[in-house]
Each structure stands twice: as C-alpha cells, then as structure tokens.
Amino acid sequence: MENKNTDILYQYGLETIKTGRCRGAVAAYTDEGIFLIRAFSGNVKRLELEEKLLDIISQTNKIYTDNIIRNEAGELISEDEAGKKFIVRKWYNATDCDLKNHSHIIRAVKALALLHNIMNENSINDVHSDDKLVKEFDRHNMELKRARNYIRSKRKKNEFELMIIGSFDEFFADGEEVCRLADMIHIEELIKNEIKNKRMMHGAYNYHNVLFVEEKGRTDVLVTNFDRVRCGVQIRDLYDFMRKVLEKNSWDIKLGNEIIEEYLKVRTVSEQELQYLRLKLKYPEKYWKLLNHYYNNNKAWIPDKDIEKLKQVIMQHEKRLAFVNSVKI
User: Cβ contacts of residue 162 below 8 Å, gap of 6+?
Assistant: First the structure.
C-alpha cells in the first residue's frame, strides 16, 4: 500500500528513497526533503483557502507549517490509477510538544501569538465563521441539564452516573455563573464583532499540532493541521492550549499565569478578550465534554478511561478554580 501511495510522487517530479508511517499518513523521504502523502476526501475550496494561509505563514519565515504541495500539473489534489485522491504536504524531522517541558510550552505559546499577528495582518476572504461560539455557554448548560435529568430518571446507576449525581450541582453552578458574567460584560457582542472583523483562529491549537524542528543549529516551531481554521475569538486558541497544559500540570498557578504573560508579550489583546479567556477557563468544559459524550453514545457501557477522566476532573476542580481566581488579567 505504501509503495502504491508513493507512486503519487511521480506526479510531483519526486523520487522516493524510503518510506515510513507518520501521523496517519505515508512519510516519503526524497532528495528534496520529507513529504506526507495522505488520502483526501474533503472540500476543495476549503483546501485552497488553507493553502493560501499556509503560504502566507511560510513567507514570514517565522513559523514552520505543513504546506500543501501542488503537483507538476499545478493541481492540489492528485489521483492514483484507481481514482483515489491524495494530497501531499511538506514535512520535517520533528519532535512532539512535551507538556512537561517548560521550554516547549512557552515556545508554543509565543508561536501562537505570532500566528495570530500574522493572520491579523493578512486577511483571507471566505473563511468559515464559527457562529456556534455566540451561544456556547448557554448551549452547554442546557446539555449538562439534559444529561443530568436522564441520569436522574434511571433506577439503577453505574459508577460514572453516581459520580455525576454527586458532583453535578457544584460544576453546574460554575456554568451558571459564567453565563451570568458573560451577559454582564456582553461577550456575545465580542464574539460577533470578532467574526465580523474576520479574526482567524487555528481552531485546534493543542500539543498534538505543535512540534519542534531542529535545522541548521536552531530549533523552530512547526504548527500543523490548519483544516479547522475559522473566524472567531482568537484567544480561544490560547485557552484550548492552556487547558490541556494545565490539566497535565495540576492547574499550576505559576505556569498558567506565565503562559498568559508570554502570549501578551507578543500580541496586543483587548480587555474584553481577556475577560472571555477568564470565562472559558472558569467554565467546566472537560466536565461538560464527558457528560455530552456519555449522553450521545452507548450508555450501557462506560469506557474505563471516561470514568478515570471524570475522577480526575472532580479531583482537580478546586485547583482549577484556584487558578482562575489567581489569573492576573
């Protein structure tokens, strides 16, 4: 299968030296570098927008990206003899982002702020807007209540469900307070304005999509997977990254505040956007995700990993709120 896939590279004037597997794709090593060959079944127009954005980012020479390569016919998408579609991306020898590595965390945050600055300086038309953000907190609270009501109606409850009943009021109170504060400081207005002004966000900025490339005696940041780029509140990207980092580091107050400080050194942020970040940190998102996943999937069998995740969320609840109350914004 890999040999079949690498035959695609002849359409790019490239010859494969060796191959391997990387991130669900075939990695082809050539005289001109490493390329990832991946099956494609998405939207062509969306792919064209992604190509344009990645080219803009690459031209700054400040952040590495997994640029999409056009074949010798000038096409983004190539087909094999069976008509199966593929895209080819530039790739690098890179190491994963380690959430226990302080340097990795800080460099990833600085790269994000830099990425947002680049996006703000180079607007792109027709980027999808994330309108779901506008009523996000209200919608999540409704979904929390729906799951809780379902669990209440059950006569026999499993371990996961009993933990939900025992912890729900405390977490839901956080959700209600966030909704109240969001109304007070007009967060919906901020979100609508950011969408109107076409503020682009990565949409999936987490440690899986940040890597480190060592070339020519220096280390640079590689940001990948821009397929979820959309218009919205940019600092949500910082929240997405922070939440994962802080969950892995027991909501370390010093680390969390340093992350915010490093981001603000690179990008100027409005007071309202900072308030949005605080609300996102306060909202019990991981708790909501676990309940929503439970409610929308097979309730007869709860994966052990979901039970362990719920235990961790409950255990870290006080630490998370202590961090939120300490945030220096």
Answer: none
Number of other CB atoms surrounding residue 96 within 10 Å: 12
Q: Which residues contact 202 (CB under 8 A, 6 or more apart)?
A: 112, 115, 209, 223, 226, 228, 229, 237
Specify the 3-state DSSP secondary structure of 98.
coil
Tokens representing 269 are 């942020």
d(CA 93, CA 314): 39
d(CA 99, CA 103) in angstroms, rounded, equals: 9
- Report helix, strand or coil for 287: helix
Specify if 14 maps to a domain.
yes
In a shared domain, residues 80 and 118: no
For 23-46, the pLDDT digits (tens) are 888 999 999 999 999 999 989 999
End-to-end CA distance of the chain: 53
Instruction: Please answer whether residues 8 and 17 qualify as being in contact, where contact means their C-beta atoms are separated by less than 8 angstroms.
Output: no
- Residues 130 and 232 sit within 8 Å (Cβ to Cβ): yes
The span from the CA of 236 to the CA of 234, in Å, is 5
Q: Are residue 158 and residue 13 in the same domain, yes or no?
A: no
Distance CA 236, CA 51 (A): 23
Q: What is the pLDDT of residues 38-67, one digit of tens each?
A: 999 989 999 999 999 999 999 999 999 999
Q: Do residues 60 and 216 touch, judged by C-beta distance below 8 A?
A: no
* Residue 136 covered by a domain: yes
Q: Which residues are bridge partners to 39 per DSSP?
A: 86
pTM of the model: 0.93
Question: Is 97 domain-assigned?
Answer: no
List, for the chain, all residue ranges whose pLDDT scores fall below the cut of 50: 1
